[in-house]
Write a structure and sequence with these properties.
heterodimer, A: alpha/beta, Rossmann fold, FAD/NAD(P)-binding domain, 4 domains, 5-stranded parallel β-sheet, 14 helices, globular, B: 103 residues, mainly alpha
């Protein structure tokens, strides 16, 4: 083992107001680690993240001339940036600080074993100190950013985002897979809540987008690849050229994915789907928009309509989520029916109605105008049959004391929800994070709702999860703001905790190139003299390359092999 | 055995006067406040009318006539259903359809 560098490290162990100290003996943790080599300051704090304690840390760093910081409190997800900033304020390089999680990993998980939780905390803090002892100052990588963005998907969210980007002074490539812009909304007639016409809304947007010289619209086009890094991506787009398909490349700083959703398609026989007169919600909306006056289906007058809610949503063995747009959409459709002439009986068969916000008013309105709502139990769904005298739906109505009733209807609407769109090629090309439900994932549902873990790749609209058109537009514009915040500065700072190659040890075998999921490593030089080269701007610091190198020639800054080994030593040593 | 739903009963009841219970959301405040503790009146009987379950309405005709029309339920109804008016209409309908009386 090489001689330990002479370090001056401050260690702060947090009570978290009892969240930690009710189970972990924080004083014992301090007593066990304060004699570790290099530790100059070791103390506990009631709330380490409080302004007062942060100020204390800053003062300690400056007065004691500390060159390393260990905070043992909660998850690094929560406070890494808090303490990196504290270090920065004190003049300490933020990468010489280590977060140790003794709340989620000790006190919260071992509430029944105070002794065990305390010992584990001691080991983790010791590992943190060992890692910190081997830190060196790192500086963020600075890259210049392109002043153009790519929008994938020409539905209402993508169109509005493209227009927003152009208005803010960024060049835009808008890529749409189908032949026409407009997406779902562009095919709809009157849409809730204000009865505006979807087709007209989208046509107006499209006109504005096409009028902008700074927006390039590509239809019949698909994104098939992405290289480069945040601020300087090169996107490969397959377009229909005059001589068949060809691939073009565009330089963009950021990518907004607004690829929308698919409508849930019931299986044959699911709630009678496939029987004459049984339609999905989109099919029914198409029928409503196709004519005026009293409603007809296949030339016959419709006098009675049934609606069955939550088809394909909130299923115990299928899509567990609520599609949230369908309740308001079906209520609104029933009001449109009522507007077209009295005398149509409408029966809504539901599990729970979710008419949130102002949709509640439409729900009340529809009841006042004669729609009857019948509630069925989750495990007792309605059955649908067609007999000689017509279509019939039978349901046990919980609102009529569980009475089983049969409703003859001329038309039955299956109120279908949204499902993720099949986009495997795009997911592969952009490395999009996909959630368990198949929709794309944001970093933080509240505070970073349109950014993904891939820097400079944002999501907007219903590709992220079921949304109404107004919610989709709002998220499209949020993505515009985030894109502008990243690109308008003209430069971006990237995390310097990336892989580096020791050129003297590299034999050019290429194993690391194959191991990298981000295509950040390339071989340079000629055959026989090849060397691996890591593009720090592309590397995510995942560490996937380091264990495969047969020569140990590749290391991850911030988590070097030496650091990880020293952490293991700290974990396994006796307490 | 399930009963067949029809809008026709509600239409006939309305010939006897105002009947409006669509706003009812089945919260049960009416049943809870009823000084007679009438179990099926008003909300369940109103559902029978709206769904067109005529036999059920006939079965409960005695309850419809037992109501005191005190309007305690109506005062408490969060959906603003005119319960007493509905009961009066229902009685007129039953007078006609059950007893052949024109009042």
């Amino acid at each position: 083992m090489s001689a330990l560098p002479d370090r001056r490290i401050g260690v702060y162990v947090c009570h978290c107001g009892g969240n930690i100290s009710d189970y972990v003996d924080v004083d014992r943790v301090i007593a066990s680690v304060e004699q570790e080599p290099g530790v100059k300051v070791a103390r506990t704090a009631m709330f380490t993240c409080s302004d007062a304690t942060q100020t204390e840390i800053v003062t300690d760093i400056q007065e004691q001339e500390l060159d390393g910081l260990v905070v043992a409190s909660c998850s690094p997800k929560l406070h890494t940036f808090t303490f990196r900033n504290a270090a920065k304020r004190a003049g300490l390089n933020p990468y010489q600080y280590t977060q140790v999680n003794i709340r989620e990993q000790c006190s919260w998980t071992h509430t029944d074993d105070h002794e065990g939780a305390t010992e584990k905390a001691i080991r983790l803090v010791r590992a943190g100190i060992n890692r910190t002892r081997l830190t060196s100052p790192l500086e963020p990588l600075v890259v210049e950013t392109s002043q153009r963005a790519l929008v994938v998907g020409g539905g209402i969210a993508g169109l509005r985002a493209a227009l927003g980007l152009a208005e803010i002074g960024l060049g835009v490539f808008l890529v749409e897979r189908s032949a026409e812009l407009g997406g779902w909304v562009g095919r709809l007639g009157e849409i809730y809540p204000h009865g505006k016409n979807g087709y007209e809304l989208v046509a107006g947007l499209e006109e504005k987008v096409r009028a902008r010289p700074d927006v390039t619209v590509l239809t019949n086009a698909e994104v098939v690849g992405k290289s480069g890094s945040f601020g300087n991506y090169v996107a490969s787009i397959r377009v229909q050229g005059e001589q068949g398909p060809e691939t073009i490349e565009v330089d963009v700083g950021a990518i907004i994915v607004a690829t929308g959703f698919d409508a849930y398609q019931p299986d044959e026989g699911e709630y009678g789907y496939g029987i004459e007169g049984v339609l999905t919600l989109p099919e029914f909306e198409e029928l409503l928009s196709a004519s005026d006056g009293p409603l007809e289906l296949d030339g016959r007058s419709v006098r009675s309509i049934g609606y069955v809610y939550c088809i394909g949503s909130r299923q115990p063995h299928g899509n567990a989520y609520c599609s949230r747009y369908c309740c308001p959409a079906a209520i609104h459709a029933s009001l449109r029916v009522a507007d077209r002439g009295a005398g149509v009986s409408q029966y809504h068969l539901y599990r729970e109605m979710r008419a949130y916000g102002e949709h509640e008013l439409a729900f009340s309105e529809s009841r006042k105008r004669g729609s009857l709502y019948l509630r069925f139990a989750d495990d007792d769904p309605p059955t649908v049959i067609r007999e000689d005298d017509g279509l019939k739906v039978t349901v046990r109505d919980l609102l009529t004391a569980g009475e089983e009733v049969t409703i003859p209807v001329d038309l039955l609407v299956l109120v279908t929800g949204m499902v993720p769109r099949s986009n495997d090629e795009l997911i592969q090309a952009l490395k999009l994070p996909v959630g368990r439900d198949g929709f794309f994932n944001e970093i933080h549902p509240k505070l970073r709702p349109v950014e993904t873990v891939v820097d400079g790749v944002l999501i907007a609209g219903a590709c992220q999860g079921p949304k109404t058109s107004s919610e989709s537009v709002a998220s499209g514009l949020a993505a515009v703001t985030q894109t502008a915040a990243m690109l308008k500065l003209g430069r971006a700072e990237l995390d310097p905790q990336v892989a580096v190659v020791n050129g003297a040890a590299c034999t050019g075998c290429g194993d690391c190139v194959a191991a990298c999921p981000f295509a950040a490593i390339a071989m340079t030089g000629t055959n026989g003299n090849a060397l691996a080269f890591v593009d720090g701007a592309v590397c995510k610091g995942c560490g996937g390359c380091t264990p495969v190198c047969p020569e140990n020639a590749i290391d991850l800054l911030g988590y070097t092999d030496a650091q990880v080994r020293s952490m293991i030593d700290g974990l396994v040593a006796a307490v | 055995m399930s009963t067949v739903v029809s809008p026709e009963l509600a239409e006939r009841v309305r010939e006897a006067g105002a009947f409006d219970a669509e706003a009812c959301m089945n919260c049960g405040v009416c049943t809870a406040t009823c000084p007679l503790g009438l179990d099926v009146l008003p909300r369940r009987v109103f559902r029978y009318v709206m769904l067109g379950l005529e036999d059920r309405v006939r079965d409960e005709s005695e309850t419809v006539y037992s109501c005191l029309l005190c309007r305690l339920c109506e005062e408490s109804c969060p959906a603003g259903v005119h319960i007493a008016e509905n009961v009066r209409t229902l009685r007129r309908h039953l007078n006609r359809s059950l007893y052949g009386l024109e009042v």
